[in-house]
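Late entry, evening session. Most of the bench is empty. Finally got around to the prediction I had been postponing all week. Sequence below, unchanged from the version circulated by S.P.
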Amino acid sequence: MASKSRALVRMSEAEIEEFLAEHKKVQVATVNPDGSPHLTTLFYVVDEGRIAFWTYGRSQKIKNLERDPRITCLVESGDDYFELRGVSVSGRAMLVTEEEGIRGIGTAVASRMVDGADLGDLGRGEVERQVRKRVGVVVVPTRTASWDHRKMLAEAGS
């Protein structure tokens, strides 16, 4: 029964793509030196079908990823059980350390934070000031899980 329910709520590739495109924040889990999870929330973009973000180069998540590139990302929404939707992506982090790549990710994230509006000189200047302090991260997925509990109500109604 569980596998039937699981299959019922799974999102298609197109639904996953649409879901990731409509959200802005991702919860990111890395592995601390003691094996415990380190969990943070960041703004992200989808770059060639992969979750990408930037963060400070001295952050705990980057220290963790330099030591152990395993990463899990969660984008979720919904308040009621039958509204819950989410995509969990596990994989390996590819660290982007060259300024051009960091600038590209940072500009895309900053633009997404303001709903795609032009960043203007001030915003572009702020991205430029941050480039040397940050590292880009691209998640290379090895496993993706998804769910859309709204499908249960649709199934019950048919």
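Two things to note before I forget:
The helical segments are 2-9, 13-22, 60-67, 99-113, 120-131, 150-157.
Residues 2-149 form a domain with the Pnp Oxidase; Chain A fold (CATH 2.30.110.10).
Will write this up properly tomorrow.
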